[in-house]
Write a structure and sequence with these properties.
Rossmann fold, six-stranded parallel sheet, 434 Repressor (Amino-terminal Domain), homodimer, DNA-binding, DNA-binding transcription factor activity (chains A, B), alpha/beta
Amino acid sequence: MANIKDIARVAGVSVATVSRALSTPSLVRPATIERIEAAIADLNYEPNHLAAGLRRQRSDNVIVAVPSIFNPFTSAFVEGIENVARANKMRVLLGITEGDIDTLNKYVSMIAGKQADGMILLEKTLPDIVRNPPTKSKMPPLVAACEYPPDITLPRVRTDDHEASALVVGHLAELGHTRIAAITGPLDQFMSKDRLSGYKLGLLRARIEVDEAIIATGDFSLQSGYDAMLRLLDADPQFTAVTCANDEMALGALSALQQRGISVPDEMSVTGFDDLRFGAFSSPPLTTVHIPTVEIGEAAMRLMLDSLLQPDQVSASREVILPHRLIVRQSTAAPKKRRKA
Amino acid sequence: MANIKDIARVAGVSVATVSRALSTPSLVRPATIERIEAAIADLNYEPNHLAAGLRRQRSDNVIVAVPSIFNPFTSAFVEGIENVARANKMRVLLGITEGDIDTLNKYVSMIAGKQADGMILLEKTLPDIVRNPPTKSKMPPLVAACEYPPDITLPRVRTDDHEASALVVGHLAELGHTRIAAITGPLDQFMSKDRLSGYKLGLLRARIEVDEAIIATGDFSLQSGYDAMLRLLDADPQFTAVTCANDEMALGALSALQQRGISVPDEMSVTGFDDLRFGAFSSPPLTTVHIPTVEIGEAAMRLMLDSLLQPDQVSASREVILPHRLIVRQSTAAPKKRRKA
DNA sequence: TTGTAGGCGTTATCAT
DNA sequence: ATGATAACGCCTACAA
C-alpha cells in the first residue's frame, strides 16, 4: 500500500504538504493540491487511520454499550447514534454486554486503550468507573441514556417516563376505567421503577387506589407479557384495563387475551409503551406512548460529540429530555362488558 | 497515560520484555511476569491499541454493512456477528448504508485505510470492488450474507430460500388450498426473487398454475404487507391463502385481514418467513419458516475469521448453507368458509 | 506556501 | 530469557 511518502514523492512535495492538503486544504496552493490529488488517485492511496490515530491520540470510534441489540428499542437507539456519528466522521463500535458488568468494564477500558474515544451507555448497570473515578488518569467521556438513577453526574438523555406512564393511566381513567392493572419491567432497572411510579402517580391523580395484587412483573419480553397477563387474569376477575411497561409485553398480553377469548378493547383495554411499529399492526392496534427512540440515540451521540470537544467540561453534565406523546389506537375503549369468569 | 516504557522502567525490564509478557507470556520467566503485572496494576496501564495496530497492520475491527439496523432480521444478524467477534477479540464496526452504494464503497475503503480488517455484507448491492478487483493492492476480505447472486465468488452464508418457499406452499397445498396468493419483497433483491421462484416451484409441485394476478409486491415492511393484502383482496375474491416473503409483511397482512373482518385461518390462511418472535404472539400466531438469523451472523463472522487467517486463499470462497424449518402455528388451516365478497 | 524532523506506543528482529 | 532498536505512517511544531 502506498503511503504518504509515496504521494509526496510522486507529487514532488514534502509529506507535510500532503498531510496538509488532506486535512487543511486551505493552507495549500490549489495547484499543489491538484498534483497531490492526482498522485493519490494514481497510487490508489488511502490514509492509514491507525497511524493518524496514534499521532492524534484518538480513534474516531465511539462504543455503544447495550445488553443486546436484538430488540427493536435498542436497535432504533443504535441507528440514531450511527446516523449522527456518520455525519461527524465517527464510527460506532458495537459493545454487546449481555448485561455482564465485567464485559461492560472491559469496554470502558477500551477507551484508555484508544480503541474508542468515548462510550454511550444503554445499560441497567453503570460501569465501576462512574462510582470510582480514576485518580491518575482522566475520566473517559461517557454518555448515559434512559436507564440511570438521577444522582449520577453523566451527560444523559432520556424521556420523562414518569409523566408518560401517568399520562397513559390518565387516558384509561378518562375512559372510565377504575380498576387498572399493570405489567412492569424488571424492578432492578431504574426505567422500570420510573414507569411503575408513573403508573401509581396516574392512579393517584385519578383517585384510584393502588392495588399491588394487580401489578405483575415481566422482563420486557413478549413471553413475559403473555405470562404476566395470564397471572393477572387468574388472580383477579375485576380489572378492565392493563398498562404494560413496553410494547413487547403489551403484544404478549394481547396474545394471552386472545387465547383466553377475552376481547380487546370490549372486555379489556391494553396499553403499551415505546411505540414499536409492530404495535401499529397488532390486532387490535395498540394504544401506546411514542418514545422517540431514534432521536434519543441522536441526542446521545451529540452529547458525546460535545464531551469530546470539551474534554475538561466534565462537570457540565447536561441532561436532555425528549418529549413523549400518547398514541391512541384501538386497544383502549370505555369499559363495556363484564368479563366472564 | 502510562505507556509500555513506563512499565518497563518500573518493572526494571526492557520494553520488549513487557510486550512479550503481554502477548507471549510463555517466553517470559514467571517471576518477571509478576513484576510486570505489578507495574501494570500500579500505573493503571492499558496497551495502546492504535500503536499496536499500526505496528501489526491491523485494527481487529470488522465492518458490518447493512442498509439499516432498525429491523429485527438485521439486528439478529448483527448480534450473531458480534457474538463470534467478541469471542475472538475482534470488534464490530457498524456500517449503515441506507442502501446507498457510495456509502458502501466508502466503507470498503476503510479497510485499505486500516480502520477495519474486513467487511461482512448484508446488502442488496455489491460494492464496486467486487466487480472490479484492484490490480495493484490486494482484495480486502469480504463475506456476503443472504442477498447475493450465485455468480459472485465471495465466501458467503445463506439459507435455501428457494426450497423454503416451496416448502411453505407445499404446506398450504397439503391443507387443501388450490388458490394461493403471494406477497413478495422488492424484486430488485436477489433474496426476493429467490423466495418468489420458490413459491412458483411449490405451486408447480402441487400442480397449481401460477396466476400473476394474485402476486403482489411489497418492500418487506409491515405497511407494505398491509397495503399489498388490501390490493389482493380487491383484485381477487377467490384465493384462500397468502404466503408472504417475510414475517413483517405477514403481520401487516394479518392486520389488513382483521380490519376487513376476514377471519384467519377460517377464511384465509397466512404464512410468513423468518420467524421473528413477534410472529409467535400475533393473533393468530403466524405459521412461518424459521431462518436461523443469529446463526447466519455467527457463520458469516467465522468465514471472516477464516479469510483473515489465510489472506491468500481468496479463491477458496466457501459457501455455508444453514437449515430452515417450517413452523406451523395457527394462521394456516384447511380452507373452510367461502370468503364473503 | 512549503519543508524538516521528532515523536506517537507498539511489535518484531536480531543480538546477547 | 532478555535487551537494544528499527520500523509502522502520520501529524505538527518550527524553520525557511
